[in-house]
């Protein structure tokens, strides 16, 4: 280290230029014009060409992560047969109901296995065959809660299931 070298001080924000060097200490002038006597072991040389070539990276703002407990993880399944298969006309009424039932069971098991809190089952408004199948299956399924209100039974086309 010699007079005129640019330096930084270890574990401090001080930067400056060496004015004079003795055996164990160096006298430096900081960027504000103040003089400091600092141990040579705490001085790090600054090579200006290193800082000029390094690119400054700007990081994106971090998103606040919601905890798993408070996250709104829900799933929606539509049991309308047209949404489940490509050619609905090729199936008989019994096959349609069986495919809808299998889809319902698969989604309930998936939600329970993957800790999804809520499931919205869209069964539609119609003769009530699919609606009765959904409610009959939900009555026999453990570890869930759902609304089974006689007043809205035939007027709503969906049911929300909450997993315990």
Based on the model shown, name its key terms.
164 residues; alpha+beta; SH3 type barrels; Ribosomal Protein S8, Chain: A, domain 1; 5-stranded antiparallel sheet; 4-stranded mixed sheet; 9 strands; rod-shaped
Could you explain how this protein is built, in words?
- It is a single chain.
- This protein is of the alpha+beta class.
- It has 2 domains: 6-53, SH3 type barrels; 74-163, Ribosomal Protein S8, Chain: A, domain 1.
- The chain has helices at 48-53, 81-84, 93-113, 129-140, and strands spanning 6-9, 15-21, 25-30, 35-39, 43-45, 74-78, 118-122, 144-146, 158-163.
- The strands form 2 sheets. Strands 4-3-2-1-5 form a 5-stranded antiparallel beta sheet, with no helix packed on it.
- A hairpin with a 4-residue loop joins β3 and β4.
- 12% of the residues are buried.
- The model has no long low-confidence stretch (mean pLDDT 84).
Summarize this structure briefly.
The protein is of the alpha+beta class.
Sheet with the most strands?
A: 5 strands, antiparallel
User: Which consecutive residue ranges, at least 5 long each, have pLDDT under 50?
Assistant: none
CATH architecture of the largest domain: 2-Layer Sandwich
What general form does the structure show?
rod-shaped
Q: Classify the secondary structure makeup into a structural class.
A: alpha+beta
- Helix fraction, binned, reads 25-40%
Protein name: Smr domain-containing protein
InterPro entries: Smr_dom, Smr_dom_sf
Pfam family, one: Smr
Organism: Halpernia humi
Describe the secondary-structure layout:
Elements lengths: L5 E4 L5 E7 L3 E6 L4 E5 L3 E3 L2 H6 L20 E5 L2 H4 L8 H21 L4 E5 L6 H12 L3 E3 L11 E6 L1
Parallel strand pairs: 6-7
Antiparallel strand pairs: 1-2, 1-5, 2-3, 3-4, 7-9, 8-9
Helix pairs in contact: 3-4
Protein name: Smr domain-containing protein
Pfam family, one: Smr
Organism: Halpernia humi
